[in-house]
Amino acid sequence: MSVWDDLVGQDEVVAVLREAARAAHAGATAGMTNAWLITGPPGSGRSTAAVAFAAALLCEDLVDPGCGRCEACRSVRAGSSPDVTVVSPAGAYYRVEPMRELVARAAWAPSGGRWQVIVCEDTDRMRGPDLRWAAANVLLKAVEEPTARTVWVLCAPSTSSEDVLPTIRSRCRHVGLRTPSTSAVAELLVRRDGVDPSMATFAARASQGHIGRARRLATDEQARIRRRDVLALPTSIAGVGEAILAAESLVSAAKVEATELSEVRDAAETLALRQAFGMEERRRAPTGAAGALRDLEAEQKRRGTRVQRDALDLALLDLLGFYRDVLVVALGADVELVNAELADAVRRLARTSTPESVLGRVDAVGACRAAIASNVAPLLAVEAMVLALRTG
Amino acid sequence: MSTKGRCAVKIRVERDVLAEAVAWAARSLPHRPPMPALAGLLLVGEPGRVEISAFDFEVSGRVEVAADVVDPGRVLVSGRLLADITRSLPAKPVDLGVEGTKVTLSCGSARFVLATLPLDEYPTLPVMPTSSGSVAGEVFAAAVGQVVVAAGRDDTLPVMTAVRLEFTEDLLTMAATDRYRLAVRELSWNPEQAGLEAAALVPARTLAEVAKSLATTEKVTVALSLGTAGDGIIGFEGAGRRTTTRLLDGEFPKYRSLLPTEASSVARVDTQVLVEAVRRVALVAERNTPARLTFTDGEVRIEARSGDDAAGTESVPGSLEGDDIEIAFNPGYLVDGLTALASPVSRLAFTASGKPALISAAGADDHGSTIGDGQYQYLLMPVRVSV
Ligand SMILES: [Zn+2]
What we know:
The structure holds 2 protein chains of 2 kinds. Chain A has 2 domains: about 10-175, Rossmann fold, CATH 3.40.50.300; about 240-390, no CATH class. Chain A is about 60% helix and about 5% strand. Chain A contains 15 helices and 5 strands. Chain A has a 5-stranded parallel beta sheet, covered by helices on one side. Chain A starts with 10 loop residues before the first helix and ends with a helix. Chain B has 6 helices and 26 strands. Chain B is α+β, with helices and mostly antiparallel strands. Chain B is elongated and about 80 Å long. The chains are: A alpha/beta, B alpha+beta. Chains A and B meet through helix 3, helix 4, helix 11 and helix 12 of A and helix 2 and strand 9 of B. The complex binds zinc ion. Zinc ion (ZN) binds near residues 60 and 73 of chain A.
């Protein structure tokens, strides 16, 4: 299975990256672009594309790099290649100090002699809460004067100046992922995760092309129940008291979702690190183990905050999808509904509201997402939004 | 031999040999492992010997020791734990046995059981390139010690944190600079490849550690991978200890053209006397106060000023050929160079008080600034001071 197979519905991007890897294999070092920007909506497969590209650059298959079978492809995908580094912000934002370390690492020669690839996920998070691009400016120098055999692959939601520092953007070769189609996502869920086809179609549609979210909806009943509760909100909230309660339950549901997502991963990481350091009950911890474990816990805590915000954002995207459906019905457009199973509720709301009022609610959800992204306390932002969503 | 498909390794090794080898390999274990498997030490038992390896994606260390290997095989165990345990063992032979997912370590009456780590998650260790040549450990360590003092520590200028090694059929040249000083050392070595002409940027910190740990070995083998594939690493080996490190990519300053070939003044001073005088004067002055040196025939006056007041002044004897000169240096950098020189008498050559000074050893065969075998040159930029 080639490294490109998990990238669904992205034939154009695959063709560009594949061709670039092929040219690089043919010895075209001089023509290789040292900085790439992969954009696409969350869940469209930006990191998957970046890692596939890294594997292809290091792949031992001369003819069609990215074979997925050679030692290089295997180690890149397993995260055990010395020549590939994948970083994401430890918390809500990239910090400057780790970015400096990363830039220093970019000066290394590739140990395998081909390329060193550094993947930065979510470059939109290189902008700090003060809206300044402190971490991005550290990166800029490395992108401006790249080491000959180091390739940067940056991932961002879009090429807008909110998502990537424009001076970095101008140095990068850009490829854009599209939102994968419902059928492409459903097909992946069936093929890769063994999901039943009708469930796969529902999940692919409901997630609006977010592959990770689709997989979760397809495989986790609790996630489906939480989503259903969120989507009951637009048609059930009339009074202020109800709104405040609904806001609380929305935020706490996201918290539960995030905890479930984090718990398994955190526990597995902690266990693996404890084992690697040979830590056991009733035995004194070996030298250095306590420090490494403390570092891991701190990182997990920062990541936990981010996962929680991400979970809340997904719930808000579900709400947006619902209002989009309402608008589609109100305007009589002939488009498939995201929430086909909630068609009755959608039609009811469409009958009782004007397109303007629906758009007002869409704006309220958008404002809430923006507020949370800029570090406003989630409950505060959600309360303000729910009050604006009331039907009364 | 494996029984019923399980990995059964049986090794007997002397306690001191094992403890020393494990401690050495453990130095290459990452403090914050980028993946859990890298917190492990890889033990490979082969007939007559055991190899112990560690890797942190940048540096790999592998040590080989003699051992009585009954059942060959490989196992990955927690590195820090194994290091802690082997340090505390009594002075008796150590028996290591692997059964399934457990390693048993017995020594006298002591017995420890360690869990094995999954081998399939461990990355492939870098392959030691073919030997390029060799040099005596003591000579190598001394030369490396002389140049690393000038290497930069600022990670935002990665190339400056490296030592440039240049290999030819006659000479091994080392150079390092942090832009304010430049240290160059040439030494003869024993190349093993005809027509060799290569260069590599080796991280200075790693090189310093490796050289120090190989200082007592008779022969250090240097192995640089050449050609387009796999030219990103360099290896050093001596007495069964092998270290590979990734190289840095980039343009090292063209330093040879910086070394002046002429001088308008040349001073010769007793190194130890000058070092101590500079240290004393610097000690009484505020931090970062430059040391002003005035060379006249017969004397060097060293002075550090705070504002208009001289915080400390001292004179030491010294000879001078050519014009008198007054020049100021960062005292720490000056002491670094003089100390690295390791010569009883220093030769300081000047062209002007605003131009860099060249420090080298003054000897019977002191012919000015041409670098030759065994020669060390330390080029130091003066500091501008208001007069
Ligand atoms: Zn491959």
